[in-house]
Amino acid sequence: MKYPMTIQGARALEEELKHLKTVMRPQITAAIAEARELGDLKENAEYHAAREQQGMVEARISDIEGRLSAAQVIDVTTIPYTGKVIFGTTVTIANVETDEEVTYRIVGEDEAEIKEGKISVTSPIARAMIGKEEGEIVVVRTPSGVVEYEIVEVQHL
């Protein structure tokens, strides 16, 4: 099963993967070699710490490779603009009651970062907006009740 991911999300994972393979791996290998030279491995804290770090780095490399192989990378800037909310679009919505505006980018689950205005495509607010157009009202059920938002603008950034 393929999971949607923005082109920016894929690039960030590829950069992290490159860093782990070209910088972290060699550093850890060197640290393990250095610690081995200190002798008795049973009570060698440096050796055990380096081996533990190596395990974490290798696990992260596997995780990233798995995510990238399962990703369907979508570059929203190559998709013709229709005014509809789709994966990857940046959407400005206004609370119908308060007129308070907020802008979100709809991204893959792994990319979601609310502080950066990135919400998961599986979040209730994104699910309510997908397929709707500028000017439409969406109803979102939140823990504090039902909130209505008007879709003010849809952008392919």
What does this structure look like?
The protein has about 160 residues and is α/β, with parallel strands linked by helices. The chain has two domains: about 5-75, Orthogonal Bundle (Helix Hairpins), CATH 1.10.287.180; about 75-155, Transcription elongation factor, GreA/GreB, C-terminal domain (Chitinase A, domain 3), CATH 3.10.50.30. It has helices at about 5-35, 45-70, 125-130, and strands at about 5, 70-75, 90-95, 100-105, 120, 135-140, 145-155. The chain has a five-stranded mixed β-sheet with strand order 5-4-3-7-6. Strands 1-2 form a two-stranded parallel ribbon. A hairpin with a 2-residue loop joins strand 6 (about 135-140) and strand 7. It is elongated. The relative contact order is 0.16. The model has no long low-confidence stretch (mean pLDDT about 95).
> How confident is the prediction overall: mean pLDDT?
94
Helix and strand composition category: alpha/beta
Mind summarizing the main beta sheet? 5 strands, mixed
Which parts are unreliable, with pLDDT below 50 for 5 consecutive residues or more?
A: none
Number of extended strands: 7
Percent strand: 25-35%
Global morphology: elongated
What is the CATH top level name of the largest domain?
Alpha Beta
Cα distance spanning the termini: 26 Å
CATH superfamily of the largest domain: Transcription elongation factor, GreA/GreB, C-terminal domain
Number of domains: 2
Helix content: 25-40%
Compute the number of helices.
Answer: 3
Task: Please give the order of strands in the largest beta sheet.
Answer: 5-4-3-7-6
CATH architecture field of the largest domain = Roll
**Cα Rg:** 22 Å
SSE order, one letter for each helix or strand:
EHHEEEEHEE
CATH topology of the largest domain: Chitinase A, domain 3
Organism: Halopseudomonas formosensis
GO molecular function: translation elongation factor activity
Pfam family, one: GreA_GreB
Keywords: DNA-binding, Elongation factor, Protein biosynthesis, Transcription, Transcription regulation
